[in-house]
Write a structure and sequence with these properties.
Blueprint: H1 2-11, H2 21-61, E1 67-69, H3 75-88, E2 91-95, E3 103-107, H4 115-122, H5 129-152, H6 163-166, H7 168-189, H8 194-197, H9 203-219
Antiparallel strand pairs: 1-3, 2-3
Helix pairs in contact: 2-3
Keywords: Nucleus
Organism: Carlito syrichta (Philippine tarsier)
Subcellular location: Nucleus
Amino acid sequence: MADLLGSILSSMEKPPSLGDPETRRKAREQAARLKKLQEQEKQQKVEFRKRMEKEVSDFIQDSGQIKKKFQPMNKIERSILHDVVEVAGLTSFSFGEDDECRYVMIFKKEFAPSDEELDSYRRGEEWDPQKAEEKRKLKELAQRQEEEAAQQGPVVVNPASDYKDKYSHLIGKRAAKDAAHMLQANKTYGCVPVANKRDTRSIEEAMNEIRAKKRLRQSGEELPPTS
C-alpha cells in the first residue's frame, strides 16, 4: 500500500516553486504591465491638469465671462479641476445627482453665486437673474403688506344697515309661515303646546276635585264632564 501511494505521488507533477524560472518571468511581466498602467494614468492626470489650467486661465482673462460650465467628469477629474480653480483664486461647485452626470461650474470671486442661484442649479434649472429679481420684489412687497396689516390690527367690518331691517319683510313672512306650519301640525297630529298642558290650579283645588270625583264614584253618580 505504501509503495503504491509513493509511486502515485512521484508520478504527479510538482507545483511550481517560487524559484521556478517560468513563475518568476510571469511575475516580472505582470509587474511591468502594472507599472506601465500606473505611468499612463499618471500621465493622463498630468495632461488633464494642464488642459484644465489652460481653460481656467482663458476664463480669467476673458472679461465677458463670469462663470463657466464644464462637461460631466468622473470623480478624479472633478477633484483635479477643483484644485486648479482653488489655486487660481476662483470658486467652483459640482452639480448633478448621478456620478456620471456630475459637472463642475466655476465662478469669478466678484461674481460668486447666491444661495438662490445655487439652488436653481441643484434642481437642474437654468438661472434667470431677471425672473429672480421679480420674484424677490414680489416677496418683499408681500412681506411689507403683512407687516402693515399687523400694525393696523384686525379689520372690523361695520355693515351700512342691519340685515334684520333690510330683510324684515322676508323674516316676517318666514315667521308667519313657520307658525302656520306648527298650527297645522298640532291639528293633524294632536300636538298640544306646552303652555296648554300647564296646570294652573293650586294644590288644594286639585285635591278637592280629586276627593269630589272619588265620592261621586262611590255613590254611583255620573261624573260631570271635564273641561
